[in-house]
């Protein structure tokens, strides 16, 4: 990931391109719409897990959210998101190099945690993926306040599989609509987007 974000950082410095938006613009719109529809207060504390280039945080800030934190275990990703934050003039976004699988005590209880593809990346770890998924769920339980919301967008997991992964300590509130496709007479989604609430 460092190498990928170093390339994106160089591209941003050269031509001002922020790089890849995981799952596209509509994934950010979907998240922001859900927060607005449920009248989530603008001062709610929001954690973007695996923030990458931080573009989601910038969009949340433009929508009026004020208490925003992004973490990524790649220092290059945080460097890139800092440059984008500066360019956009969003000084209220906090960014930290942090491994979510072993979060520091500095990560307090958040009202909302958002994941676009980080759980997918953790799941693809060649080294003890099942153990790392359990660590992820445990970390989520530590950083998300009771009754807090967890919004996850995944391209690797179905709704049923995610319900199983997050069954301990979380309950499903809503499945968000995502683009559908048809193959061999069956309809499916290439992306799953769910909202959980911490019990």
From TrEMBL:
Gene3D superfamilies: Vaccinia Virus protein VP39
Keyword Nucleus: yes
CDD domains named in the record: AdoMet_MTases
Keywords on record: Cytoplasm, Methyltransferase, Nucleus, S-adenosyl-L-methionine, Transferase
Gene Ontology molecular functions: protein-lysine N-methyltransferase activity
GO cellular component, one term: cytoplasm
Catalytic activity: L-lysyl-[protein] + 3 S-adenosyl-L-methionine = N(6),N(6),N(6)-trimethyl-L-lysyl-[protein] + 3 S-adenosyl-L-homocysteine + 3 H(+)
GO BP of this protein: methylation
Domain Methyltransferase stretches: 45-174
Cited PANTHER family: EEF1A LYSINE METHYLTRANSFERASE 2 (PTHR12843:SF5), PROTEIN-LYSINE N-METHYLTRANSFERASE METTL10 (PTHR12843)
Protein name: EFMT2 methyltransferase
Organism: Scytalopus superciliaris
Organismal lineage: Eukaryota, Metazoa, Chordata, Craniata, Vertebrata
Gene name as annotated: Eef1akmt2
